[in-house]
Amino acid sequence: MLKNSQPQKLQRYGCLIALLLAMMLAGSCATDTYKYLRQGHKYAAAGEWDNSVRFFQKAHDEDPENTEINLMLKRSKFESSRMHLVKGESYLAQELFNEAINEFRISMAMNPANVKAAELEEITRRRMDARHHFKQGQNHLKTEKFIPARQAFEKAVALDPDFEPARKALSYYRKKEVDTGTYKLNGESNTPVSFKFKNTPIINVFEVLTKLSGINFIFDKEVQNNKVTMFMTDVSFDRFVDVLLRSNDLNSVSVNDKTMIIYPDSPQKAKEYEDLQIKTFYLSNLEAKQAVGLLSKILKSKDIIANENMNAVVIRGSREVIQIAGKILQANDGSPAEVLLDVEFLEVTRSLQENIGLTFSESLTFGIGETSDDVSEDTDFVSNISLYALKRISDKNIILSTPSATLNLLKQDGDTRILAKPKIRVKNAEKATILLGERVPLIVNRRIDSNTGDTTQDFQYTDVGVKMEVLPVININDEVTLKLLLEVSALGENISTDPSNPQIPIRTRTAQSVLTLRDSETIIIGGMIQDDERNTIRKIPGIGDFPAIGSLFTNRDEQGTKRDVLMIITPVVIRSQEIPSMDATEIWSGSEDRWSLEAPYGSTNEPIYQETPEEGIREFMPTLEPEAAPPTVENTPPPPPLSEAAPDFPAAPTAITPPEPQPDPATKVVNTERTFGKGWPGTARYSIHVGSYLDRLEAEKRARQLTALNYECFMIPAQIPQKGLFHRIFVGRYEDKEQAGNICNQLRERREFTRDIHVVDRQWAAGS
Q1: What is the DSSP letter of 645?
Q2: Which of 354, 414, 551, 612 is 20 to 30 A removed from 463 (C-alpha atoms)?
Q3: Residue that finishes a domain, picked among 235, 258, 273
Q4: Does residue 502 carry a pLDDT above 50?
Q5: 452 Cα distance to chain centroid
Q6: CA angle centred on 442, ends 440 and 446, rounded to 5°
Q7: Main-chain phi, psi angles of 252, to 5 degrees
Q8: Domain range enclosing 68
Q9: What distance lies between CA 138 and its chain's CA centroid?
Q10: How many domains does the chain have?
Q11: What are residue 144's phi and psi, to 5 degrees?
């Protein structure tokens, strides 16, 4: 027996020890969870969201099912993501790209749904690559490899269209325009031609064109043989045909690369000859109804149908109409911006009540009742009495209501605070509503049945509490315009005397505004204060009016309630407004009666270019703005130079010879001789001539040397009669001659300039 009891005792002790260890371990885990939770709240209150996430994550690992921990962990991650997003934007603005990318990655790690962080990381990488290609272009320029430099600058501009140094560097290059041809015909010669027709039948004109180009022309039976007068010199065949057709209200359609059909330019004939196309556009964000309204208004076509089930638009029209419709939809079907509204409501109510003093009975009642010898609570006043009983009335029948006095000693002070922090995500130009309160049923109609007398009441639910309606509009700069309506309402006291038909008023405070905030900027709306005060004084007439003892017979009841509502709004742009490329937002559409995506002759649109081996830099002006057309030469003698000209350069002429006619800048004529006078603003008449060179490479080398010394330097070629072509180097551009002279005198004292530099005007600089 003793031998068996010993193992049993050891077994019981072992179980007890294991139970105690389990309890201690559970208590330790609970203690750790509470410690982590407390530390997380501490760092969250201080705005240290990274540390807050770290401790809430530890608490979550200890207790994954705890709702409070899960909510606080999500909130801390969201706030940490937003904090790193703001830091990344700051680094991006300072062009600290590696630091910005690191912050954006942390932001996405904290909140994978942060689309804006992903977009900004992509923008940062593109800007980094743009700077890399720009530096490559600069290195190519130093070794005079102009074509690779231009290619590098083009890549930089494509990656970052707003990178101004790359855009300016790219604008220094001249390019040769290639005429793609509107009619895409295969003529026998592409050389420019000159035509002179005077009162010539149009059929004969086309006959001449056939002989020159080998193109066949077929005429519609309604084409009239009108007479044509045209004088055009050095134009392409395609350009001449286009002007000829437009000036005579004609149009054409190509049968093949050697044949054209000419027909009157009228809607009826267009239906006969134009081939129509049907295309379905599937929309991502723009609603089909809106797209139909947009296209119908611009294209003035009835053959546009909406497929609302598939959110698609079906269009039937010519090839040009289909292309233009595609560009319009591309420009208007971008992803809408989205904003997260971080809202905090704070309603503070403070009530104060003070009731001090004696309250006496407000009335004393005499009457006749049943006979009573002592004080009785059951004796009531009689409502009717006979004359016989009235004659026998005694003091036992007289009843007097007993007066009473109550001593009030009450002082009550209370504070109430209601706090809510809702977050709501809203699409651009969409309405959002937040209600913190309740929907109260109120009687709006009451009907009584004339036959049965039954009463029927209609109820309507009304929002009571704090209600916010907001409509955000996000622009391309991530600024948010909020159309805001804030309404604070509460039920009042019943003002109806009929218990069956209560009439309850609703006390309302409303604030309405339109304001513009930057991304993550905070606005506080407050001051919607409701202050209710009620003072009641009860006292015995006469005695209560005495200054000293009157307060003993007076009761003072004071009640005050003060309510204030504060609202804090912080809009955080989650997705920026998507801006389509320039080729979709800016297109040519032809004339009023003829659709076309082709750019008109002489337009400011960027033409199609083909590089040439001779491509080089324009007049070397690193800080110069885009070229302006040369102004009209005034017939006044130029100002004499301030000193003798350089020995290798002729002196300023004494007579004015008008400059030769300049070609239209839109034609982009490229030859070995540069057009003088460009790049010099009309308002800046004077500059300082610092040297002239017969060798262009030597002149460009000198210009680069001065530019490296931070001088505003540029070069203008000038054809001097009987002397040849000189490349003149100038420094500065000035409106005032005296100012230019003072600066010229200062430059003469510097070792990088010779003593013979002098001030000239633009006419002299151009070789006039």
Answers
A1: P
A2: 414
A3: 273
A4: yes
A5: 65
A6: 160
A7: -145, 160
A8: 30-113
A9: 34
A10: 6
A11: 60, 35
